[in-house]
Structures are given as structure tokens and as C-alpha cells.
Amino acid sequence: MQTPRIDNLQYANWSEKIFRQMRDGGLDAVHVTIAYHENFRETVLNVEAWNRWFQRFPDLIFQGRQASDIALAQASGRTAIFFGFQNPSPIEDDIGLVEVWHALGARFMQLTYNNQSLLATGCYEADDSGITRMGREVIAEMNRVGMVIDMSHSAERSTLEAMEVSARPIAITHANPAFWHPALRNKSDHVLRALGQSGGMLGFSMYPHHLKNGPDCTIDDFAEMIARTAEMIGAEHLGIGSDLCQDQPDSVVEWMRNGRWTRTRDYGEGSANAAGFPDQPGWFRDNRDFGGLAAALARAGFSDAETGGIMGGNWARFYAQSFGPMGG
Known about the structure:
This protein is of the alpha/beta class.
């Protein structure tokens, strides 16, 4: 199998245009968000929507369930779509739904989305109480069935405890180092080192509020950030989780930030006067631009093998280690 291209986080306004752009960009696999604040039944409706897309565009996309589907995607010229949650709301307060969701194809679940959840503390909370009693049980269940613990939006203590509690490596699918840009979601050196030592994965985000200089961040600056992180934790633990929200209306940002938990507007990070989506960097506006990162990684000093790993090979290895049952 040739080295795959994998983007490990997108939440676009899905359409045939975007699916064709995935193919034009050579994306073999994409981890897509199917829930932000939705409960179980509402998330099932999102699965139904994806089923219709799979039926309408079988020559472009199919649902991925196991790492071997990456090779199938390459052989058939399609993109494997892997489901994930940015919040544990789809399991509500029922640990049994972890296994149900794995059977339905969910392969990643964040334990928090910015706020405190039943499982852990989000990165916007003033006090981080760590992994909760239920969180420990849910982590064990996710480990058992083969669902990845994602701590992208989680606070520091909770993230470190998730690594300690989990019997399998965790992922931070879409965040950047705090040493590069001090956004609330971006991760400290301590978290990054612990992630590498525990065998986890970091997906670098192109979301402008998490980049130095925002939309004006250059592709070489982005590659330099990756190079500095590789020096710290090793290139084998790094990949891309672009956080691309292509073609989404600004109202979706309000849904992401506000959900159902507040009646006031939560602007999140960035300017309080800019409630909508920020402009993407010019070098990554859609999936067709994905491959351009490889040349920047080479300029930053990465070998061909390291570049291939960051572009998707490392995620493919992590999928193979993570998506099956414990010990399977």
C-alpha cells in the first residue's frame, strides 16, 4: 500500500463538490464529526444523512470501519469516511451506548467539548477536576470496544489523566502546541511530551484561531511548528487534523460554541466582534490543497518517510492499533 493521505478531522457542509475535492486532493481517509451537542437520536439522524450520501456517491466515498478500509479506498479510488464525536452527548448518560455507537461506526469520541461534561473537564472551564467517575468507566469501555479517546477540547489535568487511565493510546485529533500560539485549546509542552511517551497522536489544526498570525499564517510557518513539535515528541506521533469547516454558514459556529447550554452568545477564541468563521489560510482552503503540505514539510527538514507519516501514514498505523477490540 502506498503511503496514504489522511485528514483526521473535518466538519464541512458536505456536498458532492466537497467529495470530489477530496478525490482531487488524494484523500484516502477523512475522520468526520457527526455530533457536536446532539443526543443519541439526533446523532442517528446524522448517520442516516451519511448513509444517503454513501448511496448517492458510491464512486467517491464509503463508510470506513477498520484500518484496512484505507487500502480499499486506495484500490478503488475513493475516500473512506470515519465517524467521530466532538462531545460525549451521543452516549447521553448510558455507558452501554459506547458499544452501540462502535457498532454504528463511531471510532473517535471527545470526552469534552470546551465545557465540563459527565466525563471530564473542557478547556474553557476555570477549574479542571480531571476525569470523573463515569469518565473512567467510559474510557475502559472505549478501550474494550475500540473507540479512540480524543482530548482535543479538554483541559490539561483531564487530558493527562485520560492518558493515565486509558489502557490504549489516546489522540488529540485537532489542536496545536501552545508554544506556537497560546489558544485555550492548544496543548502545553507537558501534555505533548506525555502524549508522545504514551504512544498517542497529535493532529495539527489549520483552524485560524489556533494558528500564529491567524489566516496570515504561512505554510512554511505551519511546517516549522510541526518540525519543532517533532523535535519534542517524535515525528511518528504527528498527523493532520485540519478542522476544515468548508462551506458552513456562520450559524454553525454558534451551534458549536453555544449548543444548548447557554442563552447568551459565546464567542469563543478570537475577536468578540467576529462571531463567524475566520478566513482559512490561503494555502488550505479545501481538500484539493492537502497535498501541498508535503513540499513544505520537506523544506522544514523532514525526510520522505517522515513526511509520508505526517501526511497520513501515522494515522493509518494508529487506526490499525486502535479500532479493533482490546487484545483483538
